[in-house]
Amino acid sequence: MKIRRLLVLLSAFAFLVPRARRAEWLAQWRAELWHYEQWLSRDGTGGFAAAARLAGRASGAIPHAITIRILHWSPRMIVHDLKFAWRMFVRRPGFTAVAVLILGLGIGANATIFSWVESTLLQPLAGVPTQDRLVVIRGVTGERDNLSMSYPNFLDLRAGKIDGLADVAAFRIAAMNARTTGEPIRVFGELVTPNFFDVLGLQPVLGRSFREDEGSTPGRDPAVVVSHAFWTRTLNADPSAIGRPITVNGQALTVIGVTPPGFHGSVSGLTLDLFVPITLQRHFINGDRLVQRGNSWLSVYGRLQPDASFERARAGIAVAGQRLATAYPDFNHDRQLRAGTLSEDGASGILMPVMTTLMAVVGLVLLIACANLAGLLLARAAGRQREVAVRLAVGASRGRVVRQLLVENLLVTVAGGVAGVLIARWTSGLLRLFIPPTPYPVRFDAAVSPRVLLFAAALTAITAILSGLLPALRGSRSDVATALKMSAPANLAGGRARMRQALVVSQVALSLLLLVCAALFVRSLSRAQSMDTGYATRRGFVAAVDLLAGGYDQPRGTAFFQQALSRIGSVPGVERVSLTSTLPLDIGSGSDMNVSVDGYVPRENEPMHAYYNRVGPDYFEALGVQIVEGRGITARDVPQQPQVAVINETMAKRYFQGRSAVGGTLRFGSGPVTIVGVARDGKYSQLNEAPRNYMYLPLLQSYRGDALLLVRTGTDPTGVIAAVQREIRALDPNLPLFDVRTIAEHRQLSVFIPKMASTLLGLFGGLALLLAVVGLYGVIAYNVTQRTREIGVRVALGAARQDVAWMVMRQGLTLAAIGLGAGLLLAFGAGQLLSRQLVGVSPVDPVSFGGTALILLAVAALATAIPARRAATMDPLVALRRD
Amino acid sequence: MLAPNIALSFGSAAILHAVAGGSQFGFDIMQATGLTSGTVYPALERLEASGFLKSRWENAEDAHAAGRPARRYFTLTASGATALRAALAKYRALRPLPGFAVEDA
């Protein structure tokens, strides 16, 4: 009997139907399935097919049940609930205001952080449609990941067709000097393959994109597609700009198209303005990279075929990688390809840990807010016991009462959600302050988008249930007879009081967790600021020049650098001047390469690599790095002289083990390099990095056209900057100086993460503490009110006032202490997770833990002292006369 | 009672059409319209709540005598008839086509 079994199954869903209509609902389906079965058997359908069709038909019972339920709620009842809820809402403005404020802060904090996450992680490439169909293709070797690809490898990859991918495109970010009319400006753009816009799925709003043959022959096709922002800003939004040339890096390029307004390039988090055929590479990035298979410099995106899954493409990409490795073993022998997603790319990859931490933190804040609101609701439920008892006594079902209480809470949380969105609108702009200062054009457009609104709405709903359900269930479980008898509600409130206490304990624990983390970062920040980084210079500035973009080849570039150094060196106020490729502790300052050291035999599997920097003459003097042995880089270290290098102490100790490193020989790339000096160790990439091998190579020997001018000044550098700019302009009026920043500003960069973390965690931790303390105060104050009579009796019988006060305080401090213990355990775990972000501070730092615990106890004592005082000064006569 | 000029969905119109044509209970209406059970049963509830249909249960003895479970019969109300007329003016697919006369089985 199939029908009976189906009906048993259906009756499991009977709870969806209002009780009064359950029997009818089931009877209707009994009839339906009976008729259908008859019809099927007449039709000759039997066995499994009939069973499947019956089950399919029976599935309609569930939407049916839901419809009956929704119609049962019907507008009248909902409106009634809402009207009543609104009356409760306005009748207690104090309660309402506090609840809305608590929720507004909690939801606002979450919406703010989410607005940022949404814009960088969930939609990494602004303005690119269906970007979830884009796949990032990266190189992988045994020890390294996220490698770029060479142009010849890319051409083979594209020609070989990858299973699951419709097409692949390559691009590379490049800094450019552009000039339309007037001053040259510094912009960022991309070198792209001709199919770049097709793979991204973009159509220009004006003009056209590249043709397939444009950008396949090196040196030809001087065309450029400009961003909408560039077109508006620099070309005055003039439609006739299409077809006209602009000068980019000294080349006249014809503007052929304008991208859609929302598009900012294919690198997540950056704003890129010009898109140039990859075949013009020589004018934008040094080297002749279009023919070198060993020179990897391109990022590659692929678009999935309409019917292909990411998994299929992943396999296809791995196969293509194998093919490249087999075809060109010299270059690709241990190199594989792997598929990645956009969200691990670009700026979002760097920001990911920051964002996950922040999301966790604001999630905790919301949890605390929920606990707080639940505490308030429980307290209020105590006051409404009699109302609830009356409702139950006149025949309201418990479900009806729970629903009424939930609707009331929903109204409060919706108001809180609206407040939260208003707060987020304002604070999401403030997040801009936390963008690290970099030379790159970082894009920041966190705003309250529809998705953020949806997120806030979902949070509001969750909050309403999380904070309201328990109090509503508790509140509706009323012993009618006792409650209506009016007096002695204390015993009834027993369970409720315990729950409020538990809520307060959890709030104290969570706020302690946040505060300890904040303290760890504050300590981290102060350590970082006073840390010896290995660079003594404090007054000075750096400014970038790009000779490649300025149209210089190596001989002219070398001459320019030499002239510039000598002219700037004689500017009044300049103490020392040099050149460098990167500044230590800059964002992204960490190139390394494989080296071998003559006379040193590496252990098995010992990685032999060193980080390096290219520096000009006088670099060590200009930045204040001590030379402990030998000499620094000088003006004599030019291409005609033997190749030299200065290494750091770590590298000298590691490879020369007690012998002098000066005179030793290094090998990397071509030819031997003689070590001429040893420089003191410093911090190169991060303040909390382990000691690492580091080499300084003369910039004039291993030439690069893009460099930073490093100027040490005797006094405040601001006055000197303009004079240096004049000197550069005198040498070449077309060459812009960009990314000018003082050494002091640069030093702030290295403490950026601890600074941001301590500010935000401190802010949220303070907020959490405030909420927890208000919750603690509420519980104790309420308790004193409940025990008025008892306290009155005690005082009347001769209890000392300080004993009464201590009795009250002890209760509050016990709760705080339990929360403290739990919070310390949580913080211990969190400290382990954060240890990689901390600088010079142990994750179990006793000062952070102990100090925070003391502060929390002190604040808790203060919060309980107020009700304790009230209890102690109670007039026993008044207390006893109270009902 | 809701105003009859409220727009009916095509599915709802088809169901009213079927009821008016003599298909009076769930199974029959599904046979007449070809709609799924997950569409017809919820729609019947909504149409009844809107006052376009009313329902009654078949006498249990009558059903027992016929050897089947009791049926819930739906009939068109006055406002249901008005709504159906408006829907038929709108949905030409529900009008009879000349040359396509349908004979009752």
Model description:
The complex is a heterodimer of chains A (883) and B (105). Chain A is 52% helix and 14% strand. In chain A, the strands form three sheets. In chain A, strands 13, 14, 15, 16, 17, 18, 19 and 20 form an eight-stranded mixed sheet that branches. In chain A, strands 2-3-8-5-7-6 form a six-stranded mixed barrel. The longest helix of chain A has 38 residues, at 346-383. Chain A is globular, with a radius of gyration of 35 Å. Residues 488-492 of chain A have low confidence and may be disordered. With 105 residues, chain B is mostly helical. In chain B, 50% of the residues lie in helices and 10% in strands. The chains are: A alpha+beta (883), B mainly alpha (105).
Topology:
The complex is a heterodimer of chains A (883) and B (105).
Chain A: H1 2-11, H2 22-43, H3 47-58, H4 61-91, H5 93-122, E1 134-140, H6 151-159, E2 165-179, E3 185-192, H7 196-200, E4 206-207, E5 223-226, H8 228-233, E6 245-248, E7 251-258, E8 274-277, E9 299-304, H9 310-327, H10 329-332, E10 336-340, H11 346-383, H12 385-393, H13 398-430, H14 450-476, H15 480-484, H16 494-530, E11 540-546, H17 554-569, E12 574-580, E13 592-594, E14 596-597, E15 609-615, H18 619-623, E16 627-630, E17 644-648, H19 649-656, E18 665-667, E19 672-679, E20 694-698, E21 706-713, H20 718-731, E22 738-742, H21 743-750, H22 752-786, H23 788-796, H24 801-834, H25 846-872, H26 876-881
Parallel strand pairs in A: 3-8, 5-7, 15-20, 17-19
Antiparallel strand pairs in A: 1-9, 1-10, 2-3, 2-6, 2-9, 4-7, 5-8, 6-7, 11-21, 11-22, 12-21, 13-15, 14-18, 16-19, 17-20, 18-19
Helix pairs in contact in A: 1-2, 1-3, 2-3, 4-13, 5-11, 5-13, 5-14, 11-14, 11-16, 11-22, 13-14, 16-22, 16-24, 16-25, 17-20, 22-24, 22-25, 24-25
Chain B: H1 10-20, H2 26-33, H3 37-49, E1 53-57, H4 60-66, E2 72-76, H5 78-90
Antiparallel strand pairs in B: 1-2
